[in-house]
Amino acid sequence: MLKWLLLGLFIVTAQLLSAQTLSDIKLNALYSGKMDEVLAKISTETKVKFDFDQTKFSQIELTDRPFNEALDHWLTGICKDKKLKWYQTKDGVVHLLGMYENPEANTLAAKPKGSRGEPSRKNFTLSGIIKDKASGEALPYVNVRVLGTAIVALSNVDGHFTLLNVPADTSTLEFNYLGYHRAHVYLSQNSPVERLPVEMEAEITDLGEITVSAEREELLQASGGSTSLLKMSPSKLATLPSLGEHDIFRAFQLMPGISGANEQSAGLYVRGGTPDQVLTLFDGFTVYNVDHMFGFFSAFNSNSIKDVQLFKGVFDAKYGGRLAAVMDITGKDGNDRSFNAGGELSLLSANLWMEQPISPKLTTIVTFRKSYQGPLYTSLFDAFKKSNGTTQQPERRGRFTGTSVVSWFYDMNVKTTWKPTAKDVVSLSFYTGKDKLDNSPKINLPSGFSQRFNFQITDVTDWGNTGGSLKWSRRYNKKLYSNSLISYSTYFSNRDRSNSRTENNPDGTTTTFNRGIKEDNRLQDFSTKSDWELKLSDQSVLEFGGAVTYNKIKYSFSQNDTTILLDRNSSGLTASAYVQDKFSFHKGRVKLIPGLRTDYFSPTGKPYFEPRLDFQYQMNKRITLKAAGGHYAQFVKRVVREDVLTGSRDFWILTDGAKLPVASSNQFVGGLAYETKDWLFNAEAYYKTLDGISEYSVRYVPSFQSLRYQENFYNGTGRVRGLDLLLQKKYGRYNGWIAYTLGEVRHNFPIYGQNDFYASHDVTHEFKFVNLYKWKRWDFSLAFIYASGRPYTAPEGGYQIKLLDGTYQDFLNVSTKNAYRLPAYHHLDLAATYNFRFINSPASLSASIYNVYNHKNIWYREYQIVENQLISTDVNYLGRTPNLTFSIKLR
Amino acid sequence: MHKFLYLLLGLSLFSACEKASLNSPSDSITRPVVQAFLQPGATPSVKITQQLPFGSSDTVVHTIDNLSVLIESNGQQFPLEFVDTGTYVGNFVPIAGQTYSLSFTYNGKIVTAQTVIPSKPTGLTTSATSIAIPPFTPGGGGFINIPDPINLSWNNPDNAYCLVVISNIDANSTSIFPVTNNNIPRRIFRSQPEQISGYEINARSFRYYGHHNVIVYRLNPEYASLYDNSGNSSQNLVSPFTNIVGGLGIFTGVNADTVHVYVHQ
Questions:
Q1: CB within 10 Å: which end of chain A, N or C, has fewer?
Q2: pLDDT category of residue A704 using cuts at 50, 70 and 90
Q3: CA-CA distance, A803 to B252, in Å (whole number)?
Q4: How many angstroms separate the CA of residue B78 from the nearest CA in chain A?
Q5: Which positions in chain B touch A795 (Cβ < 8 Å)?
Q6: Per the CB < 8 Å rule, is A794 touching B4?
Q7: Could you report the predicted ipTM of this complex, rounded to two decimals?
Q8: Among A445, A809, A819, whose Cβ lies nearest the Cβ of B226?
């Protein structure tokens, strides 16, 4: 802190001192040309030395005619106009730089000419903070390395890093972060050892003053972290083909091990797991439903996201409560330097964001997105509706009714970050999102009817999430860091398909009758957690912490006014503690991360021990071997109602250890990575066992004396195995990857017989080919997905029974569970993005075509008995779908 | 490079584990479909057909003829007589409270089922035996005065499932609503099978003037389960409920009481 104050004081003092001199120098001539030429001319005239970035200043045009204007006054005016700043150092040199550039960071980043001399400090501890150069946003999970050594560190969620045992203060540090240019810091005898300022420049093309760099970094990073960890740069999503929204979940589905053949679910099917087995954290709070618009998109607006990490299994002991994977999303803090705003308009939605620094210590960001019923929305909606039997109520479509379907989604993120001291960061993050489908017909009763009664038909489905976290992180010293939060998250899903009749009684009162079905699911999650990190040595980082989550889940399913078919109210407390140590030996070539997590779950009253281990061995500069394993437990489950065909076909329930057992999994992963500067080949094989997995149905259960709805939980076991292969070209104008997964998911549920069956989401072969190419102001992309068909259950025969009222009811006699497979799924997508300046602001226009060759991919099949024939109708996923997105931001 | 290949081989071995037996398509397509509602006061009729096989272009329901079908009750055996097209009739009248068992052999496999005849609903009363409904004139503002509904009630001490079926029984009756070629109103409407002891018949539910039978059935749970939709899409297909062992369909006893309602202008 003191250093910063001194530096600021120094600059101000320098300006005051120099002002005396510079104010005596008068300019009185026409200056026209590039800024570097103008400054050179003034330097010749006045003998004042200027220091600036030649490349950048050669792109700034300047025409000015001062009349006897003092040089300091003239410089201030020009700088204001060109968004620059200036200061004069003791040696009389006038330095000019960008308004938001940090001179100290610039000095550190400037490659010194010649030798840096003898080091004055050796084997010292260095800490620093890494920020985005343009916005001042702290950058999390940046890889930091002391060049020529095995000393590495990872910045924490607030951008802080600590390097222990830096050999000398003449070392060079290298910083790597996805979506950013690689940065270097050249230490010198004067470099600070605490809060070393590091700035990294986003890779996004900024046209105008800055030259477009030829270097291009990858969109997704599959190496350099824990085993099975993927990272993504949200800022680059715009270059991928999209269905209307630039979606982090859809982008991850292009990687191996994450199925891309589920258009109806934004949620991830990771290595044979289902979406509910993926823990999704946004700024620390759990988000339970990630679907917008029946799952075509995820509930997260990429404009609000700074960093995403996806653990495809074998995750750290810090995470728990899920079997398959963890997606940890960090929201943006907001620009701490100036107001900024932007927006996007696609054929589906409008998206706006705004960043406002209230003070240098207090920043805010707001993002808001809402769909509108434009052409793309309508075509996506129709694709869904066509397949959706429940949107039809033919018996109600009389002469008095008309349908006006209302359907929309929105989401909003607000985050405020306060940095009261150099050691503390407090942030408040809030998210809310909702989907609604209102298919209620409008009823226009003739006046004679409406005098006696009113009639209303409701057909509404809505669901959404709201969550928030208050997080406090503190860096006690270079070695100890903590991150604590309290959070709240709620998910609701309602279905109301009913009609109500209100009769006006002669005595002036009214009587209301309701018929139909109502479903209501509400989940609440109150959590608090605290994560601690202690750097014991440069070979050992101890991580420990704990969390308490209280879940309250309500599910009710009622018929008519009175009959409550199901009413489930459960609550439970999960208390967790974990400890793990990140060891590195043998000059950093061996990494070993043992960990243990313990959960106590109040409904069962039992503790659950979950050991974890991750091991990596760097054989040489190119080959790394990996092996990891662990035990995982899950206490809340999402179950899918088998007979509901609307968008929200799922609800969450709490396990009870009896009818609904706690799910558990053992996982093992082995792999190798072969990495060169430009290429990465990564292979990982995995094997998992699953226990206590559940399926669910609500149906009539006949018994002799009574017939009632019951909750039927079918519990079983599963086995998953597979091989993920990735070949990625990481850098260059052309980059991209080929991903292949060979997988098998077997389930065994006694209810379906003693044999194993392939799970409904089992995909044997999945192949993805993603190509990104940059040419001048254009970004082109091409993505191809092929996946073998998923298993399904088909009828082998059908029959009809004539009921007592003379009508016929159809019945389908079905095959054994998932005995058949759908045809293969594949599509090709293209996108082109043109980057330009629109009214002096960076803008882009993207055009994309989804499923270019219009392949009919089958979602599922429907069966009917028509005139004594059992016929099947294919319900398809999306056909060829074009989209256009315009995007703009102030700066 | 060799080292690299060995590692790859090692990885693929890692993922190769032992095979367990997997599900294969079943032979359930050969199971016969049985339909029979046993009711006191009527000789029983049992219909036995084949399933409609999936993928066949045949549009005929194939019946299963010339079987030896037997119904047993209380040690008494009642062989059924094959009439035609899969229909078998008995020469006895089922009695309420008795248990009846069906059995026959098809394709070398024994098919059986069992049901009990429920007792007749008692105490069936109706709030009105006639109802006046003004004719509906298109564009004329519809019904000006909606008549009060007809309330049915009966005893249901053991909370059994009941179904109300209302049917127009006149050969030539006048429709309340205008009849178009595309819209010929149904002569029968019904309640849901529910655990009820009363039912309100709304005037708006009637489609015809004339005589109507209002039948209140007491049901066994297996009948009510026929209304449970077992799904028709590959995402949610499950085997349909049946109480036929070795077959499909329904063999159930019902018992009913009837009142009459006259609908006039």
A1: N
A2: very low
A3: 12
A4: 24
A5: 54, 237
A6: no
A7: 0.86
A8: A809
